[in-house]
Amino acid sequence: MDKLRITGGRPLNGEVTISGAKNAALPEICAALLTADPVHLNNVPRLRDVATMRLLLDNMGVQTETHGERGGMSFVAPDSLNPEAPYELVKTMRASVLVLGPLLARFGRAKVSLPGGCAIGSRPVDQHIKGLQAMGAEIVVEHGYMVAQLPQGRSRLKGARIATDMVTVTGTENFLMAAALAEGETVLENAAQEPEIPDLAEMLIAMGAKIEGHGTSRIHIQGVDRLHGCTHQVVADRIEAGTFLCAVAATGGDVVLRHGRADHLDAVIDKLRDAGAQIEAGDGFIRVRASGRLKAQSFRTTEYPGFPTDMQAQFMALNCIATGTSKVTETIFENRFMHVNELVRLGAKIQTDGKVAVIEGIDRLQGATVMATDLRASASLVIAGLVAEGETIVDRIYHLDRGYDQMEAKLRGIGADIERIK
Q: Is-above-0.70 flag for pTM?
């Protein structure tokens, strides 16, 4: 099992290129199931989750191909494919639930294993099931699978008003894809507004879908009879960009993020500026400069455009070596402080009480061996290792490989002393 060995204390300087967003690429790969025409995606990140999703589509009978230096992938989903997602292929990736909507919409049936993923708390699929049932699907959960089909005599899902009990990103994406081929109009209330949602919607529109309001809490979709192929560029990964911003803010230095989208990171950038980092942005870049200890910042995670839960752990690592005391409140997932015990192993002073963590900033962390527990926790431990005295070993980095494209190589390119070891 691979590990990362980090020797801390080096500022970061130079340029790093931000990859395509995992959370956009995965639903957009699934959208290829909506047509028999070729679908081409560019800027697809090289990640374990992307490889798993490709393997899942391969297993169904989709023709997939990787091409070019810039993350090109092509998909052709024939009418004869097998609309089943087995447990063996989806047990490590919750995003596998995203095949449910497009399979139902185009093939009228699907059998999808209940998914796995990071152990950061309950992320139920009941909202997906309720929404698709409102569109006329018959769905039962049996033997660990969601088994879905259209009622006898129906050839298409029907439009519906779907108001989810909570804001759900993957739910919104599933409903978008299903509604694109449904009969009549679908209205999504309480829709997620994360940048990956309008990116998926723009891809669907390029395929012939009729969608309005994407990027707001109410989306209107007018179903069409068929969709065609398209070529689409995956949006840049705002969480990868935010992670590098926090890394530079913690270590000090001067780094330009190419393809970074500052307009997708307003809440994080505002907190970094309040902490004392200098950040400027333009078309296709973000520049961050920092020196010395920054000021600790309290924040509360919430749905976009608020402070993202996927940046909580990374900013907490920065708060550990900032001046002052900060309070972090996690409102999205109930089990997302598992990185705290590992940060404490590095010398951090953190107390947790339910959904709240109080961090007392200290001068420096001390290198140690730590274990990653989920994707973003892995990133926080890497940041902590970059600023810790001596050597830090981060174990179980397969979590990191699920969501960061060659993270250690990118960090090494801007001056970090970091290497992957067996």
A: yes
